[in-house]
TrEMBL record:
Residues 14-79 form the RNA polymerase sigma-70 region domain. InterPro entries: RNA_pol_sigma-70-like, RNA_pol_sigma-70_dom, RNA_pol_sigma70_r2, RNA_pol_sigma70_r4_t2, RNA_pol_sigma_r2, RNA_pol_sigma_r3/r4-like, WH-like_DNA-bd_sf. Gene3D superfamilies: 1.10.1740.10, Winged helix-like DNA-binding domain superfamily/Winged helix DNA-binding domain. This is Sigma-70 family RNA polymerase sigma factor. Pfam families: Sigma70_r2 (PF04542), Sigma70_r4_2 (PF08281). Keywords: Sigma factor, Transcription, Transcription regulation. It comes from Thauera mechernichensis. SUPFAM superfamilies: Sigma2 domain of RNA polymerase sigma factors, Sigma3 and sigma4 domains of RNA polymerase sigma factors.
Amino acid sequence: MSTAATCRAAIGSLYREHHGWLHGWLRRRLNCNQQAADLAQDTFLRLLAKDEMVDLREPRAYLTTIAHGLVVNHWRRKALEQAYLEELASRPEAFAPSPEERALAIEALVEIARVLDGLPPRVRDIFLLSQIEGLTYSAIGSELGVSINVVQKAMIRAMAHCYKALYPA
């Protein structure tokens, strides 16, 4: 049997043995049966997308780790979507985007949040102060109590991180 077939068989066995448990674990955290079912499926899809199957001594701990990341992403997306919808509600109806434009904007916000989550907190804060708030490096340094050199290095790091996220090798 090939490595890929062996991997699929192992994931199939893992699915049969632990899917019900994982679905229940997710349902208790999300209070939504359908969302729990979706995230349980997504957890196993993540396993299928891996090139190799890892040796699982504690399969439930491994599945929990993957599922927890998916739950965090779910709540992050919900928070971004809620903030976006609240902002839209404060605007006159004539300026409201179409449902398609809303969906595209929410997807873009989720992707931006994902990319920025990979940055250390101070680097992310410096990047956001520069790019969103429009502050100069000097003003950022004054606000955060760091030198302009620290701000410059953080911006280089943030830009390099964003570039790698957008254009992976």
